[in-house]
Amino acid sequence: MDRNKIRNFGIIAHIDHGKSTLADRILEICGAVPKGKMKEQFLDRMELERERGITIKAKAVRVEYFSPLQKEKYILNLIDTPGHVDFSYEVSRSLAACEGVLLVVDASQGVEAQTLAHAHLAISQGLVILPVINKIDLFSADPERAMREVETILGEDHLPFTLVSAKLGTGVEELMEKIVQFIPPPQVEDSPFLRALIFDAVYDSYRGAIPFVRIKEGEIKKGMEIMMFSTRRTFLVSEVGGFTPEMKEVDSLGPGEVGYVAANIHHLEDSQVGDTITSSACPALSPIPGYKKIKPLVFCSFYPVNYEDYSKLKESLERLQLNDASLSFEADFSEALGFGFRCGFLGLLHMDITQERIEREFGVEVVATAPHVVYHVLTKKGEVLEVRSPRDFPSPSEIEEMEEPYVEMSITLPAEYLGGVMELCQSRRGVFKDMIYLSEQLVLLRYDLPLAEILLDFYDRLKAVSRGYASLEYEFIGYRPAQLVRVDILVNREMVDGLSFISPEENAYYRGRELLSRLRELIPRQLFPISLQAAIGGKIIAREDIPALRKDVLQKCYGGDITRKRKLLEKQKEGKKRMKAVGKVRIPQEAFLAVMKSEK
Amino acid sequence: MKQLSLYFHFPFCLKRCRYCDFVSYPRRDRYTHLKYKEAVFQEVSWRVNEEMLRGRELSTIYLGGGTPSLLFPEDVEDILNYLQHFFAFSPSVEITMEVNPETVNREKIDSFRKAGVNRLSIGVQSFNPRFLRFLGRSSSLEQIENLLLQIEKVRYPYWSVDLIYSLPWQSFEEWQEEIEQVLIYHPPHLSIYNLTFSPLVPLYQFAKYHPGVFPSPEEEALYFEWVIERLEKEGYKHYEISNFSQPGAECQHNLNYWREGEYLGVGVSAWSYLEGRRQKNTSSLKNYLKRIEEGKNPLTFQEKLESYPKLAEDIILHLRTEEGITVSYLLAQYEREKVEVKLKCLEYLSQEGFIIKEGDRFYLSKKGILVANQIFQEILD
User: What is the pTM of this model?
Assistant: First the structure.
């Protein structure tokens, strides 16, 4: 294999800008997929991905391309990347397997926040960027503007733009030529030590976890013993191969090549994205830089709607975890919802997708609590606590310092909505960083924001204040000091465990009141008046009263139909039994959910 | 021998009212009515044999519906004669017939009286044309007033008027006006209920989408408290949650339901309570006629209550009435241990002021009546 004829590249784009369609066209031109067999968006194998039009996990395809201009045959490894912010670590690892990227921008939409984030990732990896302006066939297309915006974000003029319509195939051949011309072949140091980067993995019920790798140096072949750098565990290689796009066995994978390694790896944790594979007989001195153990940032709990589904829910999480190392979960119990699991995710989309997959692929209906973050609390004793639930929040007198996770938020938006968007960011405790005009119409705005603020309803609010035109992207930047308090809810002066929440001090009063007014609606009136109070420490900050039920009487009771009346009463009573009793007061499940859900 | 009541369901009306969930068909042709009557006769003869009721004494008979006043007086006579083949009538037998004003005149109610009916339950519902239209009633205010004027002249020992409140945009003054209107005629008995909708009725959707047009629970409570006070001033006894009567004019038939007495129900959708079993006939006229024709029993449901849930039901039914329930009655019927659990609950409710305890008797307080559903739920298992 002539290394100079290999091109490893990825495609990065904002959701819906046409990444997968472009990939389909490329596969078609290379004859990897016969035209008739072509399912729309071949790379998006998962049903859910196809439905949402996004790629969740990276995929790789190896195709052969004959360049009519160069009169040469090339091997193209197309490494598909996830299109969403939640998976930016996976994106960065995929990009680490490439020498170049196609940066796809919708000609009518222009640059969006995600385009920018991905482009910056690519630049930081030193990749060659080939900008592609897609959807030029659309009536609303403005390729000139899109090109100017791309130049602004990349800080470069005279970029090798290609104007295409992936849908119609226009310009794709020209793009193919640019790929072989501009994207360099793999740079390979001649080293005897094997170093292969894991950029993705799948789980196969017969062969276990199968890492997808890019060989940086050395060679990997059947029968050799390999070692994972992070875990130091060793495995015997049973098969190596490439993607055509189906997996196809080859004798060996050499420097610069992309393929898969089957080695009876039972657990996905031994095949972590970003990790380096080396030879156990002759290990390399250091791994490929950039590996991070992924830590979930966003947590929420899943409870089965039907109690009997608990074990099914557990099984579905275990199954999903086989293919998704970034998903974590542990058993959880809630006063209101019973037994369930506290799950950790990379972000909100990751959470949504996981919930949908559980419901769709495993048929388990779940109640998801609102997402929340992990706070760090340094106690006066010098311990550092990771606080995941209000229950674990220490009393104020024990706290020395507190921290909460922050993200850097990039928002691109039409200039006319700037006022509303900035106001929104300020109201969410945002710290302004900078603002760049990408073109006359398009602004890039950057804020540092507490992650907790985004989990509420930031995205919806942003769409509302910008009439759907703003797009956002954020990146975790670390923990920063915070002033937090635990707000407790007292029902008839009794504290109710499941109703407490953690809030920034400055918003505690507002949120306490807001929750009380929702609880007032959700707790049905009962035979006794109910007082609701919100308190911080021992101090009451808000109060609402639910007056006693004045009238509830079934007056008509005739015709001897006693059975139906009794059943009606029994049904109402059944409903009450499902509520949680706090003293004399019965609190329905919805009330407990209200505290976990964001405000309307 | 225990006393027995009989309920006869007549499932035809001129048209259906929008709020009504009783089984009724808008059929007025006499042929259908007569055919139905014959089918019920057939059912009576079977049921009497099956349940070994022959010779039992009937203390009350109730012709309900539907609109049984669509029947001709000779039909009513026929029905009562037929029943006398099987049952003895108690000397003080109460024979009630439900009457809708648009279906009768003075002559007709006179003839019903002669046929043996001694109590009329008149479906007035409202004296306000706006509400009559809303409810989809077939009667006009004029027809209502005429009937009420006539009834005083015809010698009915007992009669009753039904009224509904909690109607759309009904003000307190409008409700007071309804009561003052009815009091002009001095009815011996009044049944008063708030408008409720079962999901089966056309107005259910309306109520679901426009909850704001109806008086709030606070207003309803006010209307109800006022009417209790007003009627007591006129000498009425609030002897059951929705019923008021002059002394001695209580509806014996309904009291029998609340006292867990036995009754045989015949006709479409009728309920029976015999030997601790609750039974129900099919709710479909077509099926009813078909089954009778095929010589089959029209029952579709039967349950025998275990003694424990029956205990709760017994207490709840009794608590609907002014007389309430006595400890001695319960101890005579049920195991002491189980009764004591319920007594604890009753004691607790009486401490909270929802129930009044007097000697060994418990009954709902004024405050308790207003939230009776909640109280009953506490008593259920």
Answer: 0.64
